[in-house]
Amino acid sequence: MLKVTLSYILNHKLMSLVALYFLGSTILKSVSGIDICIPCIWKTLFGIHCPGCGLTTAFIHLLKLDVLKAFNSNWMVFIIFPLGLFYVGRDFYNYCKKELI
Predict the structure, then answer these.
(1) 4 near 99, Cβ under 8 Å?
(2) What does the DSSP 8-state code read for residue 39?
(3) pLDDT tens digits in sequence order for the chain, 101 residues long
(4) How far is the CA of 68 from the CAs of 13, 59, 77, in angstroms?
(5) Cβ(40)–Cβ(50) under 8 Å?
(6) Distance of alpha carbon 75 from alpha carbon 57, whole angstroms
(7) What DSSP designation does 48 have?
(8) What pTM value is reported for the model?
(9) Are 41 and 56 in contact (CB under 8 A)?
(10) What is the DSSP secondary structure assignment for residue 97, as one 8-state letter?
(11) Is the separation of the CB atoms in 7 and 91 below 8 Å?
């Protein structure tokens, strides 16, 4: 299983790097307060919040198990996070099925 997982990561380099950066930056921010997260381009250019603003903050609150603050930061985290996990899980399952055949 470890060999298939490493093969999956190597075949999906961009997705793996983005996921690693996102997880690393959110864990770093939640533990130490150091913010190396990517800022919202829409908010930077136009000065108004986009529908995705607050998702990283909501994810950080979920890491701290503070569901109410996560909901107040951006309620869409409860839709996007499970769908993202489902997508990655399904993709990994299909990859494993293809590799083991």
Answers:
(1) yes
(2) P
(3) 888 889 999 999 999 999 999 999 999 988 898 989 888 888 889 988 888 888 989 999 998 999 999 999 999 999 999 999 999 999 999 999 988 76
(4) 34, 12, 12
(5) yes
(6) 11
(7) S
(8) 0.76
(9) no
(10) H
(11) no
